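Appendix B, record 7
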Amino acid sequence: MERLFLSASAVSGFLAVALGAFAAHGLKNSLDEYFLKVFHTGVEYQFYHTFALALVGLLAARGESTSLKFAGYAFLFGIVVFSGSLYVLALTKTKAWGAVTPFGGIGFLVGWAGLLVAAFKKG
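Structure tokens (predicted):
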């Protein structure tokens, strides 16, 4: 389990840096301020939750935990759905994608709740 979450964290971090650079250099002339900010928000939340996913992987290395596994998958879901929907929204300028974004946000919340449960189970 820890290998999956640490690997996913590394891939997510790599992509967050690449997408952030792409937005800063490649999109600044093709997107208006609103859509550039939307894209930036996706990158920002991807970064935050990349670190959360790495934490889950490191904690999982100390022992199997259903709560940690649940948290890790929820963080992965959140990164793909929340950040992914914002990237698609910004690049296509199709605001309907904004209706998908909250599902990824719920994934993030579930991930943090799973981490909290894991903390209390260990303590």
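Remarks on this record: Residues 46 and 75 are 9 Å apart (CA to CA). DSSP finds four helices and no strands in the chain.
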